[in-house]
Each structure stands twice: as structure tokens, then as C-alpha cells.
């Protein structure tokens, strides 16, 4: 009977999650990295109605995917600096958690990878790859091969994060732009 215990523990451990999962940043750390000058962060109710979902789909060329989005506004005292929108996209098999920092004009300020759970493709966390998004909007070069370079060995991760950022910039254009 004692011989079976280690095997059963191995079986449970094998299905409990990816052995490659890496948590890079918490939500709070991402907020501080993207808006270091912010003095406060406030949750934003970001819910799309049917008309807004159609606008997002038209702007991004992608399904809006959800009516509810997790977002926070970054403030320096009473001045709005921008927003952060948090999302998850599928890599090849597992979810990639990331945050998109947006300026008040709905352009990308910064992209941060919060958690990466795949065995390959973690290179999308490299600063040089993520810098390609800075300043882009839903209408400006947010596609692999059209402003965003692919990374060999991380093709699906690159494509899915890029699509996610394009969707979020469209959402920002429709709902958050000041």
C-alpha cells in the first residue's frame, strides 16, 4: 500500500497545472511598472453594449469576445493619466495573462506580461518585443507583419497577444478615449 502513495501523488501533481507556468508580475506590480508616476488606481466599470461590441469588431477586425473587461484608471492626484486593461489569451495550449497600459488618447503606453504558462514562447516578455506596441492604436499597425514582428518559436503567443492588444485598443477607442 505504501508503494502506491508516491504514484498517486505524482498523478495528482501531473494534472494540477503546467510545469512551465511563470508569474512575472502581480496586478499591482504591473500598475506600478506601467504608470510609475500614478498616485492612485481606481477600478473602472468597463462594460460594452451591443453597439459598442459591433464598433470594437469593426475597428479591430476581431470578435469583441466579452461585454465585461477588467480595467483600472491611473491618476496623478486628480489628473487622469490613462487606463490599464487586463486580459488573458490562449498561447498554444495555456493562458497568457497580460496588461495593456493605455494613454488617454487610446494609444498603447506599455504592455506587460503578467503570467506565462507555456513551455515555449516566453520570449514575448522581452522588452524589445513589447516596445513595438508603444504608441499604436487600433488603426495603426497592430498585426504580425504589419508593425509587430513575430518571434520564431513563439508564433502563436505573438499572434494571440497582438490580437488581444488590438482588441483592447479598439475597446479603449470606443469606451475610454478622452
Helix fraction bin: 25-40%
Structural class: alpha+beta
Distance between the termini: 67 Å
Instruction: Please give the largest β-sheet.
Output: 6 strands, antiparallel
SSE run: HEHEHEEEEHEEH
Care to give the gist of this entry?
With 178 residues, the protein is α+β, with helices and mostly antiparallel strands.
Task: Please characterize this protein's 3D structure.
- The chain is an alpha+beta fold.
- It contains 5 helices and 8 strands; from the N terminus they run H-E-H-E-H-E-E-E-E-H-E-E-H.
- It has helices spanning 4-15, 27-34, 50-60, 127-130, 155-175; strands at residues 22-23, 40-47, 68-76, 79-90, 95-103, 108-116, 143-144, 147-148.
- Helix 3 (50-60) crosses helix 5 (155-175).
- The chain is globular.
Topology:
Layout: H1 4-15, E1 22-23, H2 27-34, E2 40-47, H3 50-60, E3 68-76, E4 79-90, E5 95-103, E6 108-116, H4 127-130, E7 143-144, E8 147-148, H5 155-175
Helix pairs in contact: 3-5
